[in-house]
Structure formats: C-alpha cells, structure tokens
Design a protein that fits this description.
Elements (H helix, E strand, L loop, with lengths): L6 E6 L6 H12 L2 E4 L2 H8 L7 H15 L3 H9 L6 E5 L4 H8 L4 E7 L2 H11 L9 H7 L3 H4 L1 H5 L4 E4 L4 H15 L2
Parallel strand pairs: 1-3, 1-4, 2-3, 4-5
Length: 185
C-alpha cells in the first residue's frame, strides 16, 4: 500500500482548533490527499439523517468500535489510502489506535492543533458545520468530555509538532509551512 517516500501526516486537535484549515492548506499548497477518520461515520449517518451532529458522530463511533473493534476506523482508512499519494493527511485522531496506526508508517508525523476552549467554541458556533455547532458553551464543554474527545490533549502531547492557533489565519498557515519545511527535509 505505502510507497517509498510517502509521508503520512496525522492531525489531532479539539473541535474548532483549526485542524481542518491546516488540512485544506496542505491539500492546496502541497497536493496532499486528506482522509478523515470520521469519513465512514459521516457516510453512514448521511444515509439516515439530512444533518449530522457531533453527538450523533460520537454515539455511532462508540457503537461501531464496540462492535467491530477499537481499530476499525484505521482499517477503513487504510482501504482509502493509495500508494501513489505522496502526502496523506489522516485528519481527526481521536483514539490511541488511530495514533498507533499513523506511527506504523515509516515516514509519519503528527501535528497537534489546539486553542483556548472558549475560542474554539466561538469558532464552531460561527462555522455551523454540524447541527449542534450552535450549542451553548456549557453543552460544548459537556461534549468535550465524551470518549471521542477526552484524550485528544493526551495524544496531542505526543505529537511531533504543536500549533496554538489563537492568532490570525496567516499565522496558522505560516506555522504550517514551517512544519512542512521540517517534515520534507
């Protein structure tokens, strides 16, 4: 599956931290292919509901992992990875099994994108990506205690690079470019 020289970049970060912005930049500027750990969940839920919530994703993730094993999403992503992709972004690390999967590739790097919780809540409220993105700050805090979110900071502490995304978009993209310069060496 993997070819020599292929770079696997794992992105970990709490909701609203900016990891999707980093992924888009890596796709646009470096020709990376993005695969999200949550893609299979979104695909399944869109068959049943017109709008997907974070709570729905968390619930389905729990059910699927319990039924098919903790590494089921890594197995699903592996099927989507092509050997001719030079840079692959595996976005949305949420579990140690995801982390181990990324670390199983010879040329892997993990980037942790994080920011203050209140700022992240404001961002999710403004973007309205999921149906519960307009929730109260208290509900946002409650959702971050769920198993799909709770260990993100622990995984982030083991990342190769950390970006505190609390400044401008330009700052985030510049930091991403600096990281890519180091990764590509």
């Amino acid at each position: 599956m993997e070819k020599p020289g292929q770079i696997i970049i794992g992105l970990v970060g709490e909701p609203g931290s900016g990891k999707d912005t980093v992924a888009k930049h890596l796709k646009d500027r470096y020709g990376a292919k993005e695969i999200r750990f949550s893609d299979p969940l979104f695909d399944a839920l869109r068959n049943f509901v017109s709008e997907v919530s974070r709570e729905d994703l968390q619930w389905l993730s729990h059910i699927v992992r319990e039924r098919f094993g903790q590494d089921i999403f890594a197995k699903a992503l592996e099927k989507r990875m092509a050997a001719d992709d030079k840079i692959i972004i595996l976005n949305g690390i949420r579990f140690w099994e995801n982390y181990d999967f990324i670390r199983s590739f010879p040329r892997n790097q993990i980037i942790y994108v994080t920011a203050d919780q209140k700022l992240r809540w404001e961002r999710t409220t403004n973007r309205m990506e999921k149906t519960d993105d307009n929730s109260s700050f208290e509900k946002f805090q409650e959702l971050e205690k769920f198993e799909t979110e709770a260990i993100i900071p622990e995984i982030g502490a083991k990342a190769d690079f950390t970006v505190r995304n609390e400044q401008t978009l330009e700052y985030l993209l510049e930091e991403t470019d600096k990281i890519m310069e180091k990764i590509r060496q």
